Amino acid sequence: MAELGGAATTAAAGRPRVNPARQASLREHNLGMVLAEIAHSPNPPSRADIAQLTGLTRTTVSALADQLIAAGLAAELPIVYSRKAGRPAAPLVIAGSTLAAVGLEVNVDYLGVRVLDLAGDVLAELVTEGNYRQTRPTVVVGELAAMWSPIADSLAGLPIAGVCVALPGLVHNGTGPLRLAPNLHWQDVDVAALLQARMQLGDIPIALANEANLAAQAEAAALRHSDIHSFFYVSGEIGIGGAIVRSGEIAAGSHGWSGEIGHTLIDPGGPVCGCGATGCLEQYAGKDALLRGAGLELIRPVGELAVLAAAGSGSALESLDRAGSALGMALANAINLIDVDTVVLGGIYAPLIDYLLPGIVEQLRARVLWQAWAPIWVQAAQAQGHAALTGAALKVVGRVLADPSGWISHQSLR
Amino acid sequence: MAELGGAATTAAAGRPRVNPARQASLREHNLGMVLAEIAHSPNPPSRADIAQLTGLTRTTVSALADQLIAAGLAAELPIVYSRKAGRPAAPLVIAGSTLAAVGLEVNVDYLGVRVLDLAGDVLAELVTEGNYRQTRPTVVVGELAAMWSPIADSLAGLPIAGVCVALPGLVHNGTGPLRLAPNLHWQDVDVAALLQARMQLGDIPIALANEANLAAQAEAAALRHSDIHSFFYVSGEIGIGGAIVRSGEIAAGSHGWSGEIGHTLIDPGGPVCGCGATGCLEQYAGKDALLRGAGLELIRPVGELAVLAAAGSGSALESLDRAGSALGMALANAINLIDVDTVVLGGIYAPLIDYLLPGIVEQLRARVLWQAWAPIWVQAAQAQGHAALTGAALKVVGRVLADPSGWISHQSLR
DNA sequence: CCGATTTGTCAATTCAGTGGACTTATCCGG
DNA sequence: CCGGATAAGTCCACTGAATTGACAAATCGG
Known about the structure:
homodimer, alpha/beta, 5-stranded mixed beta sheet, 13 helices, 41% helix, 18% strand, DNA-binding
């Protein structure tokens, strides 16, 4: 976004290049800017507000807004009487229910479908709890497609802007196959192709992404109206995922695999990890390690751990403290490396944050080089309830918001 | 760069915003694109070549090229007869000797000045070896300014595009004070203000940056015509610095402090580090640790270590192996986190790479999650001879190349 | 009801890039 | 030695997007 002439084309094995800018690029850019302003303002802005905020003239904003309204991407609210002098403003909002952004998720203990409209409101949703460890991809994808089909009917002709699937593993470049999902026990599965065959979506593109990255995207959206736009997101589940967010955007890395913090080295003499190495963070702060350390069965929900800790159970507190310290060490490494000043703890860590924080803070104090010069914030995630599912749908929404002209011309073709 | 309407303005404590695009933004963008093409093509391109490469029309490229030539940023070479049919092409190059980009460096064992022109050729250079541990900033900056003054005279009226200073420590945001340079023993020093007072440059801005980040910038320039544009750069010195390079640009982080890998945790039971924590990478792979492990005095040059290793010295090989393993562990963490597929070893590691590589590769094999799906490259730095000094000057060059219209209008004001 | 004020629109202007035709300059084959 | 083929660079009329300043619309306050 914000690239003149569309995104820079990173030609395979070539020097990074930028696209030429023509008159149409101006339109695309400014159209995107106006739509972003409508989408992200705390309350619906008027054309004049947008002109003020963007630096464009009212004339230009008017023309652009009209185009957005005509395309069904924005809408005018009834004018609101502000009891101030002057002609009252017509507030603009993102148009709801004009398109469907589909988020899907395959995770270790549930499958999910969530459909948002452009405004981010939920149009439909379905989550099936289950146990998907060591499953066969074709079967699970079939189940997911079966969940989709009644929802597809209920959407009744609403144009589908795209589909994005959250997966608990390494996804190659946002489209390529799922390389490795250790807890599902999947490897080199072309999830997009499997879904394409079963969902009957025609040529609607199916994107794949890592679950933690998408949860971070949902969190970035939740924090949009705060001052926090760059942070490191930690997603505590069976495994520990993470994502780097800069100015509200996921920094995905060269292959889309960035943010993997679960196998940070904590102690070379530590326990052997499922990945084959020794002393990984996951062995100290993963869900299994937390529960085992507290003497709980691995299938118990983490809520029980919080209950035990609140009751003062020694083994629970000890397990949480150990996990907190280990998390702190790994996060200190990460913060020194990528220089962010905020850490957001999601997944199972959010409800446990009070017990984890002392250990984390102690390690950050000791190990982050610049901790004396700038504050470091650690907080629980705002986005709740299958955040990755929301993030997946938001990714589709974001694509339309970032390039409304693309969507408009795409729509006008059908 | 590549942002329509100039860089996005990240307003303090506001949501990230983008600038409005007007006609002039088109010019700026395309002018920058044409200049970048001239600067980065392996051999001097003609107007027609540039049109081909950028996607602009020949007409447009001609107009833009003429503007660049008029501004003294580009120049036409004598036409070259290619023995092909058709009118011969006039090759365009970056104009040499039309402006001066000044790189300065304060490091632990030398001070340096290096002046490049826009084409990247060295116009002047002066390096003074010395021992600057535990020095007083005013004295050292005075020395540096004294080195500058004869060079300034020799540049005889060439316009100075900017000054950038490489420092071995945490620099706040590229301009703010130097927060901490442990080996110089400096803390919260406003180096820019000190230099401004002594260099008599008028209102020419003085930027500051971390030495490792700038060395990485030089390396990125050296690798420009290769296929490598994203990598993690490790700068082995007394301390161990690093930098993240993505598509040829330094990813500096929220405060400009990213890339610090020297205090990655290797073993919580390890030796106490100067930073106060235990088991940092620096204690295993820093210059002092390497020499001490090999039984050498700390003031010896690392060349002696390579000699000992080549002669088969057990303690030298052991020290190098230990360092290699530790580096491998830290790099595995970093690669999992930021997802790059290339590591460049600079500073003292470049000449020692053959001895370090086995340990590094072993750890990367064991700990990088995706190592089975994509190759990881580890190589020695190409840029030699005070790379940070070159990087500092290149940063100034880069600013002009990225925004030629800014430079042109700036120049026309005087 | 009228002036002040603010929103939204209209018309004329400016400016950058495009597309097609044209000029310039070379190579090559007869 | 000349003319056709070929490619580079330029000229010119045109298009499209944003700007500027004026104007119409709609409200508030006295």
